[in-house]
Each structure stands twice: as structure tokens, then as C-alpha cells.
Design brief:
Blueprint: E1 8-12, E2 15-19, H1 31-41, E3 49-52, H2 58-67, E4 73-77, H3 80-93, E5 99-103, E6 116-121, H4 139-142, H5 150-162, E7 163-173, H6 176-187, E8 200-207, E9 213-219
Parallel strand pairs: 3-4, 3-6, 4-5, 6-7
Antiparallel strand pairs: 1-2, 7-9, 8-9
Helix pairs in contact: 1-2
């Protein structure tokens, strides 16, 4: 990865997003996740929006902008540089609601009582053995563990604990095969009563060729 840390700016939908090589470059196709999230917000219950593995914050910020709502937004990422850019980008976007950027692991980012009407999750989904195929991307931003789903499952557990009744979650994954594995595991009757994700189901999906897939999760 290049050592030139000069800030860059990308056009992402109607937003201008700052980032640098320590942060995953905004992908144009992921604006589709913002569009879907904005559509869901029109019928979502009252409550704030949460973005997990938010990076520079572009997907959540664009979703709020497209929805034209005054909902508060919480952006969570484990990378300090990403959180710094998320704050800059939120200041530039000037959404009507408050934006709270949290530099934290997923497991400790939220208080037990916090609930959200919509959750956007953008976990890294490249299998560890394949991250060398993307030398321009920060390894920590794309490494999804042995099968590419390690961080996705952590996101799904957070969603299960913090999604409001009637709420929705839009989760980004890498391949239809990964989405099938998530859907099958969530639907498995043998999931234990103590598993917080046992009540979630994949209820819809959208595919974007070899770029990625999106899964819509709701409470069963």
C-alpha cells in the first residue's frame, strides 16, 4: 500500500467524501446500499440509524441525505483514521440529525439499552488468504477472516441485540455464496435460544455482479 497519506476526495452520490490510503476508498457501487437504506427509512419505526464498520461514513451519511430525514446517526469503526474522516465528512454533509462517531470494537460500541430503526453493516468480506489480491486496500479494512464472514457475524450479533421491532438491517457481503451461508445459518432451527441472532432472517437480497451483494435482515 502506498505511504503517501495525502487526503483524497471521492464523489459518492450527492456527497464529497474525504479519505486517505489508511481508509478503504469509497466504492461507487455501494451507494446502492445507501439508496436501499433510504427507501427503508420511509417506513421504519421512529429511532436513530446505526452504521457498523462505517469507514469514512459515506454509506450512512448518504442514506440519511437521500431519506431527507432528521434521524440521528451513529457511525462505528475500529480504525481511528477512518473515524477521523467520518467526523470530517459528517461536518461537510451537515445532516439535520446529530452524528455520533465512535472509535470502538463492535462488541463494546453500544450501550445495552440502545436501539435503532435501521442498521447498515459494511463488514470486510475478503477471505484472509485472498487479501493480497488487493494491495491498494488497507488489509484491516478488507480482511473478513478465513471464510470472509468473521466480522459479518459480529455485525449480525450486534444487529440482533440493537434492532428495534419493525426495523431493518442492510448488510453488505462479497458473494452470493456468502449470502447463502448467512441465510441458511440464520434459518437453522437448531440455533440456540441464547443466540441473539436466532430471531433474524434474510428476507430479501440484491446482487451487483462481481462487486458484492446486499442482504436485508429483519426479525423473524
Amino acid at each position: 500500500m502506498t505511504t503517501d497519506l495525502s487526503p483524497r476526495t471521492a464523489v459518492f452520490g450527492r456527497l464529497r467524501i474525504d479519505y486517505d490510503p489508511r481508509v478503504l476508498r469509497p466504492r461507487a457501487w455501494t451507494a446502492a446500499q445507501s439508496v436501499w437504506a433510504a427507501e427503508l427509512l420511509h417506513d421504519a419505526p421512529p429511532g436513530p440509524v446505526l452504521e457498523l464498520c462505517a469507514g469514512a461514513g459515506q454509506i450512512g451519511l448518504l442514506a440519511i441525505a437521500l431519506a431527507g430525514c432528521g434521524r440521528d446517526l451513529v457511525l462505528v469503526d475500529r480504525d481511528d483514521a477512518a473515524c477521523g474522516f467520518a467526523r470530517v465528512n459528517a461536518e461537510r454533509a451537515r445532516p439535520a440529525g446529530a452524528v455520533d462517531v465512535r472509535f470502538s470494537p463492535l462488541e463494546t460500541a453500544l450501550a445495552p439499552h440502545e436501539r435503532f430503526a435501521l442498521v447498515i453493516a459494511d463488514p470486510p468480506w475478503v477471505p484472509t488468504a485472498s487479501i493480497g489480491r488487493f494491495p491498494e486496500d488497507p488489509a484491516t479494512a478488507i480482511d473478513g477472516g478465513p471464510d470472509g464472514l468473521q466480522v459479518a457475524w459480529s455485525c449480525i450479533d450486534v444487529i440482533a441485540r440493537h434492532l428495534l421491532p419493525g426495523g431493518s438491517a442492510v448488510v453488505q457481503l462479497g458473494t452470493p455464496a456468502q449470502l447463502d451461508r448467512v441465510a441458511q445459518r440464520l434459518a437453522r432451527p437448531a440455533r440456540g435460544a441464547g443466540d441473539p441472532a436466532a430471531a433474524l432472517r434474510v428476507v430479501a437480497q440484491r446482487s451487483y455482479g462481481d462487486r458484492g451483494v446486499l442482504a436485508l435482515l429483519r426479525h423473524a
